[in-house]
Design goal:
The chain is of the alpha+beta class. It is built from two helices and five strands; from the N terminus they run ββββααβ. It is 21% helix and 32% strand. Strands 2-3-4 form a three-stranded antiparallel β-sheet. Strands 1-5 form a two-stranded antiparallel sheet. It is globular.
C-alpha cells in the first residue's frame, strides 16, 4: 500500500544532513530522499519518467503488504 511511482515532484523541504542533502516532496511528505544521490541520477531518471508526475502506486494484495 506504500508503493510509489517516481517522476516529477515538488520539493517542499531541504535539510543539510551530515553526509547528504535531504529533500521532502509534496507528493510523499512522510519520506526524506537523498538529493545528493538523486542529483547523480537526473539524466537517467528524466529518460525513464519524462514528464510523468510522481504519484502513489499502491498494490493492495495482502502478500505485498505484510511486514513479517
Amino acid at each position: 500500500m506504500d508503493d510509489f511511482q517516481g517522476g516529477l515532484a515538488t520539493i517542499t523541504h531541504v535539510t543539510d544532513e551530515k553526509y547528504y542533502i535531504g529533500v521532502k516532496i509534496k507528493e510523499k511528505p512522510s519520506t526524506t530522499y537523498n538529493w545528493t544521490y538523486l542529483l547523480e541520477l537526473q539524466d537517467e531518471l528524466k529518460k525513464r519518467f519524462g514528464k510523468t508526475k510522481a504519484h502513489p502506486d499502491p498494490d493492495d494484495r495482502p502478500e505485498f503488504n505484510m511486514w513479517d
